[in-house]
UniProtKB/TrEMBL annotation:
<keyword id="KW-0046">Antibiotic resistance</keyword>
<dbReference type="InterPro" id="IPR000335">
    <property type="entry name" value="Bleomycin-R"/>
</dbReference>
<dbReference type="InterPro" id="IPR029068">
    <property type="entry name" value="Glyas_Bleomycin-R_OHBP_Dase"/>
</dbReference>
<dbReference type="InterPro" id="IPR004360">
    <property type="entry name" value="Glyas_Fos-R_dOase_dom"/>
</dbReference>
<dbReference type="Pfam" id="PF00903">
    <property type="entry name" value="Glyoxalase"/>
</dbReference>
<feature type="domain" description="VOC">
    <location>
        <begin position="6"/>
        <end position="119"/>
    </location>
</feature>
<dbReference type="GO" id="GO:0046677">
    <property type="term" value="P:response to antibiotic"/>
</dbReference>
<protein>
    <recommendedName>
        <fullName>Bleomycin resistance protein</fullName>
    </recommendedName>
</protein>
<comment type="similarity">
    <text>Belongs to the bleomycin resistance protein family.</text>
</comment>
<dbReference type="InterPro" id="IPR037523">
    <property type="entry name" value="VOC_core"/>
</dbReference>
Length: 122
C-alpha cells in the first residue's frame, strides 16, 4: 500500500424505488439541494460538502438493508428538525455512543438507514 495516497471523501449511493421521491425527501426534510433526478435511473443531492447519490432499484429489501453515516456539525439541532418532521427512527434517538460520537438515525421513504453523527467532543 502506498503511504502517499490520501483519501479525501466518500459518497454514499443508496437504493431508491423512486428517484424523484428520494431526491424530494432529502431536499424537503433535510435541506439538501437537488443536483440531478432522472426517474428510474439516478439521482444526486448535495448539502455543503456532502453528496448522496441514489440508484434506481426495484427491490425494497435491498434498500431496507442499506445504510450510511453522515458526519455533521450541530447534530442536536438536526435531530430536533428531524424529530419535528417525525422521521427519526424509533430505535435510534440522539444519544452518546461508546465509540465516541453523538448520533441518531432516520429511515428514508425506501427504508435506507441514514445515521447523522458528530464526535462527542465536538
Amino acid at each position: 500500500m502506498t503511504r502517499d495516497v490520501r483519501f479525501v471523501s466518500a459518497t454514499p449511493v443508496l437504493a431508491s424505488l423512486d428517484i424523484e421521491r428520494s431526491v424530494g425527501f432529502f431536499a424537503s426534510k433535510l435541506g439538501f439541494s437537488s443536483v440531478h433526478a432522472q426517474q428510474g435511473v439516478y439521482g444526486v443531492v448535495r448539502r455543503g460538502a456532502v453528496s448522496i447519490h441514489f440508484w434506481a432499484c426495484a427491490e425494497r429489501h435491498i434498500a431496507e438493508n442499506t445504510s450510511c453515516r453522515v458526519q455533521v456539525d450541530g447534530v442536536a439541532e438536526l435531530f430536533e428538525a428531524c424529530a419535528a418532521f417525525g422521521i427519526v427512527h424509533p430505535n435510534a434517538p440522539l444519544e452518546a455512543k461508546p465509540w465516541g460520537s453523538r448520533e441518531f438515525s432516520i429511515l428514508d421513504p425506501d427504508g435506507n438507514l441514514v445515521t447523522f453523527f458528530e464526535p462527542a467532543d465536538g
